[in-house]
Design brief:
Blueprint (H helix, E strand, L loop, with lengths): L1 H15 L17 E3 L4 E3 L1 H8 L7 E3 L7 H9 L2 H8 L16 H13 L16 E9 L6 E9 L4 E5 L9 E4 L3 E5 L1 H4 L5 E7 L2 E8 L3 H22 L5 H6 L7 E7 L9 E8 L2 E5 L9 E4 L8 E4 L13 E6 L4 E6 L2 H15 L5 H13 L1
Antiparallel strand pairs: 1-2, 1-3, 4-5, 4-10, 5-6, 6-7, 8-9, 9-10, 11-12, 11-17, 12-13, 13-14, 15-16, 16-17
GO molecular function: GTPase activator activity; phosphatidylinositol bisphosphate binding; phosphatidylinositol-3,4,5-trisphosphate binding; zinc ion binding
Main location: cytoplasm
Protein name: Arf-GAP with dual PH domain-containing protein 1-like
Length: 378
């Protein structure tokens, strides 16, 4: 009996050690130590919790702590993450955002439910976000002045390449009409104060504007997010007909590189440092008095190293006494230096690393145009 048990444990470990099972099947986190014995995939602890919420589809066990029946181990051996991917991810649309372990709960949960519960990607064309090129619905939008969330009608049009929202359901004209190529959207549950909170950022007169929305239904808000990506993808396919699908995919909406509080001083570098909320969205560093402000108080363009941009730790020796946070950093641009302070050394290092990731990249022709606009504006 003991010998049979030992052989079963060894068989489980052998399947577990296969290279295809080295990452979580759902979020890509290394060293998954749970598995679904009804789906045959290896998953991390966090994703196992989501699987546990759909017991009609997936039943999970710990690979380290639970007892595994011989038949369950054999099922795992016959399947694994490679077979799971070929089955449940066979036809994912190019624009669909596949979350990682760094993403929020609603994105990961809806990805898992799409794969295994709804089987959205098992056949071509099965995953449909809208019909006749238009998605229409109601989202709860935060008021710019009063901070209240109120229901607003939103319309996303593939034909017109825009996102509109209306203050009243029967309104003929939209409050705002946003071109799809200037939109970015990121999930921000902590900032919005709702697990399904979404921040939509767009450019108006080359200045950044934020809209904060949510929907009570996780499936609905994730579908809005991917629908915006879909319309953006179709728009860019027309705008850049020679670009490959993967090149266009890389231009779709992106997560912010870094957010958080820093202190800043003014252009004369004699003003007292003030605490502001900063967002680094690729080459735009924006700062706000409050994280939920609709408009940025200011923006800094972060170019490439070959064009005279750099970041370094510390402040000029002449800067004394005007700041309360001890960990400084300086962004050097061709026109002026920008001085910031961070509360902790780890925050300072994270900001410097984020800036360096941007500065190391060469600038595109579109980014040269944005840089020129910043110089004219300043």
């Amino acid at each position: 009996m003991a010998g049979g048990e030992d052989r079963n444990v060894k068989a489980l470990k052998d399947v577990w050690k296969r290279p295809e099972n080295a990452l979580c099947a759902d979020c890509g986190k290394p060293d998954p130590d749970w598995a679904s014995y009804t789906l045959g995939v290896f998953i991390c602890l966090s994703c196992s919790g989501i699987h546990r919420n759909i017991p009609s589809i997936s039943k999970v066990k710990s690979l380290r702590m639970d007892h595994w029946e011989v038949a369950q181990v054999q099922f795992l051996a016959q399947h694994g993450n490679g077979v799971g991917k070929a089955t449940y991810e066979a036809h994912i649309p190019i624009y669909y955002y596949q979350p990682t372990y760094a993403d929020c709960q609603v994105l990961r949960e809806q990805w898992i439910r799409s794969k295994y519960e709804r089987k959205d990607f098992t056949e071509p064309g099965r995953y449909v976000l809208y019909s006749d090129g238009v998605k229409e619905g109601t989202l709860w939008k935060r008021g710019r002045d009063n901070g209240q969330f109120l229901p607003r009608k939103f319309i996303l049009s593939e034909k017109d390449g825009c996102l509109k929202y209306f203050t009243k359901q029967d309104a003929k004209e939209p409050k705002i009409n946003i071109k799809i190529d200037v939109i970015n959207a990121t999930f921000q549950p902590a900032k919005v104060g709702n697990p399904n909170g979404l921040q939509i950022t767009y450019l108006k007169d080359n200045k950044t504007r934020n809209i904060f929305v949510y929907h009570e239904n996780g499936k609905e808000i994730v579908e809005w997010f991917n629908a915006i990506r879909s319309v953006q993808f179709h728009y860019l396919k027309v705008a850049f007909p020679m670009a490959s699908d993967n090149e266009i995919k890389s231009r779709l909406m992106r997560n912010f590189l870094k957010e958080g509080y820093m202190e800043k001083t003014g252009p004369k570098q004699k003003e007292a440092f003030k605490k502001r909320w900063f967002t680094l969205d690729h080459r735009r560093l924006m700062y706000f008095k409050d994280p939920l402000d609709a408009f940025a108080k200011g923006e800094v363009f972060v170019g490439s190293g070959e064009n005279g941009y750099s970041v370094k730790p510390g402040l000029p020796a002449s800067m004394q006494g005007n700041f309360s946070w001890p960990y400084g950093l300086t962004i050097v641009t061709p026109d002026r230096d920008y001085l910031f302070t961070c509360e902790t050394e780890s925050e300072q290092q994270e900001w410097i690393a984020a800036f360096r990731r941007v500065i190391e990249l060469p600038m595109t022709p579109q980014e040269y145009a944005i840089e020129a606009y910043f110089k004219v504006r300043s």
